[in-house]
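forwarding from the other thread:

> can someone predict this with iron/sulfur cluster?

sure thing
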Amino acid sequence: MAAYVHVPFCTVRCGYCDFNTYTSAELRGVTRQSFIDDLCSEIQFSAGVMTDSQIPVRALSSIFFGGGTPTLLEPAAFARILDDLRSVHGIETGAEITIEANPDTVTPTVLQDLASAGVTRVSFGMQSAVPRVLALLDRSHDATRMPEVVEAARAAGLSTSVDLIYGTPTETIDEWMCSVDAALALGTDHISAYSLIVEEGTAMARRISRGELPDVDDDTHAEMYDRADEAFAAAGLEWYEVSNWSVPGKESRHNQAYWRSDDWWGYGPGAHSHIGGVRWWNAKHPAAYAERLAGGESPALGREILDDDQRHFERILLQSRVRAGIDLAELGESGRHEVAGLIADGLVEGAAAIAGRLVMTRRGRLLADAVVRRITD
Ligand SMILES: C[S@@+](CC[C@H](N)C(=O)[O-])C[C@H]1O[C@@H](n2cnc3c(N)ncnc32)[C@H](O)[C@@H]1O
Ligand code: SF4
């Protein structure tokens, strides 16, 4: 059992981001303090949902504070939220408790206080080491702060990870490799590298449609992925999911819980939950979320029950992206027929297939969606 806690605040919105997050002017009266109170009432409310729905109480093995920018809340807030989660679910000894942090929102003292509050791992939104690229992404932090904050996190006893983005319009391969080298020089246990998705409705999408920025080129993305994967592997960080690399043993347990389709409870505005094949999602705006809780209602707005076919499809979609791959026996007959062709196309590892598992090659990871289509059609 895992828990995700969504913190929907950002000081400014980055031009490429369409996550459920709000700047102060967009909050319709919600404050950070009122939000923490709402979150804690949702956690208490969920105890009743578990009893009514006969969901067994299981201690949490991982908790992820995501955003938004969770580090805009005071560290003491996390101690309070973790106390409430402990009282409702229990928290396993040695649980992984991650917080996402924008590099310009933490100091050594804050990181120490987060560790004292129970956080065990921090994931920094580094994105790039190149000031020109950070400016294109509207990031507010100064790249030169990264070594200092990662060192401070380590000194506080926290595991560390950084997020990178590649394929920002006009970013060159040399600029990307400069970011990869800078991330490796930090010596973190874990790196996530995401190709930039130009989301509809974002400022970046508008700049591209006005012709101010070029559209993102798939071949450049592919070369960036190849080069990064080589560099990460040479530095001892192994891929364990298409966009994630770690020192062996330092894989994110929380991410793995999602990919295994484990159960997780999502708290906060817009958060999704997935328990026993039922999925539900909360009201998106923090004000609408607060109103429902204040009226004694569940913050959940909708739910769906996944049928066997949907669960099977999701399992293949998620498991085929991880290093351990998927048991060939789990594929349908037409999917199994595709395997020889996928090996011939260099998308799937032949040796793993002989051993009964479908594991993507580097080329396969680049074309992961196409591979999944071929094994599920
Ligand atoms: C939503 S952010 C939250 C954490 C924190 N606010 C930050 O920006 O670092 C989590 C991660 O999502 C990734 N991300 C957000 N929008 C993206 C996009 N359009 N394409 C690719 N990655 C994206 C970024 O790498 C970011 O670090
Ligand atoms: S800081 Fe993170 S969550 Fe906030 S707008 Fe930027 S990418 Fe999105």
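The radius of gyration is 21 Å. thats all i got for now
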